[in-house]
């Protein structure tokens, strides 16, 4: 078989069958398969995911995020950032909060507005419980619709963010909302488009991605110090929340982003503040 045929088989037969929903949208988005962004994103995906092509690459460093997006926070302490997305399963939401309380973990929740409404209807006061137990909330859009978001401009995201903020102020009241809502944003499906990043700059929000998630763990890529770890509020992710020691490269403690950045809401093994260097850049605080 000639090399050209091998190459086409690899790119257009093997990979589409292996991509999850997030990876597929991250690659293709709303762009043409012949566009420059498609080939750039495809190259990044292959570099980060194919051991046959990339044995020489430092596979501990994610490469598929834009430079402005943070996935790792350098720290000398045994910490990694725990982030939890969406909120479509109210019963699982309650179970996760129970586990976090029992384990004395605190997390950053990137909640979808419509999912928060769904959970509040099922369990009135669940958002107040989340805040009172020490967790924080970041922006993850109102509806998380792929088709809708693929056409969003920065101003569309800004309107969506205002609606999202108003919703949480309605459920939490101003005092709890001021305490819980952080200037953090996570793009649905990890699709940090130019328009989404422009919106973040215009609204002074910090875009956060992740260095590890369950799909990485299942490929034996363990959580390391300073990584931001992604879970979703869904039944299949409960096992990770309850057994982190199985998925870390060394003994590590899950903390909120604020802990690694500014020593806020840290566990008893509080670190001493240093540079709080971020992967690729610094955040002014």
Brief account:
The protein has 12 helices and 7 strands. The protein has 285 residues and is an alpha/beta fold.
Describe this structure in words.
- It contains 12 helices and 7 strands.
- It is of the alpha/beta class and 285 residues long.
- Strands 1, 2, 3, 4, 5, 6 and 7 form a 7-stranded parallel beta sheet that branches.
- The longest helix is centred in the middle third of the chain and has 27 residues.
- The N terminus and C terminus are likely disordered.
CATH T-level fold name of the largest domain: TIM Barrel
**In CATH, what is the homologous superfamily of the largest domain?**
Glycoside hydrolase/deacetylase
Low-confidence stretches: 1-36, 42-59, 270-285
**Share of residues in helices:** 40-55%
| Number of H- or I-type helical stretches | 12
The CA-CA distance between the termini, in Å, is 57 Å
Layout of SSEs?
Layout: H1 3-18, H2 21-28, H3 36-49, E1 79-86, H4 90-103, E2 108-111, H5 113-122, H6 126-132, E3 136-139, H7 146-149, H8 154-180, E4 181-185, H9 194-202, E5 206-207, H10 214-217, E6 228-232, H11 238-242, E7 253-255, H12 257-262
Parallel strand pairs: 1-2, 1-6, 1-7, 2-3, 3-4, 4-5
Helix pairs in contact: 2-3, 5-8, 6-8, 8-9
């Amino acid at each position: 078989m000639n090399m050209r045929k091998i190459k086409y088989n690899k790119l257009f037969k093997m990979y589409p069958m292996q991509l999850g929903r997030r990876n597929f949208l991250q690659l293709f988005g709303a762009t043409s398969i012949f566009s420059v962004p498609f080939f750039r994103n495809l190259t990044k995906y292959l570099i980060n995911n194919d051991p046959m092509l990339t044995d020489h690459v430092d596979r501990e460093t994610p490469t598929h995020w834009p430079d402005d997006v943070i996935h790792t926070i350098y720290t000398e302490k045994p910490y990694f950032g725990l982030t939890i997305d969406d909120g479509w399963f109210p019963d699982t939401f309650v179970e996760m909060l129970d586990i976090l309380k029992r384990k004395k973990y605190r997390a950053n929740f990137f909640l979808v507005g419509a999912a928060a409404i769904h959970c509040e209807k099922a369990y009135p006061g669940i958002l107040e419980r989340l805040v009172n137990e020490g967790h924080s909330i970041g922006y993850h859009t109102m509806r998380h619709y792929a088709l809708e978001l693929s056409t969003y401009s920065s101003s569309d995201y800004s309107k969506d963010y205002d609606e999202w903020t108003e919703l949480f102020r309605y459920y939490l009241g101003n005092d709890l909302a001021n305490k819980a809502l952080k200037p953090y944003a996570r793009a649905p499906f990890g699709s940090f488009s130019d328009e989404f990043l422009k919106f973040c700059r215009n609204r002074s929000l910090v875009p956060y991605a992740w260095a590890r998630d369950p799909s990485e763990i299942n490929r034996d890529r363990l959580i390391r110090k300073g990584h931001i770890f992604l879970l979703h509020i869904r039944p299949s992710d409960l096992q990770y929340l309850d057994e982190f020691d199985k998925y870390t490269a060394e003994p590590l403690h899950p903390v909120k982003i604020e802990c690694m950045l500014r020593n806020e809401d840290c566990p008893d093994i509080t670190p001493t503040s240093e540079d709080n260097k971020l992967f690729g850049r610094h955040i002014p605080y």
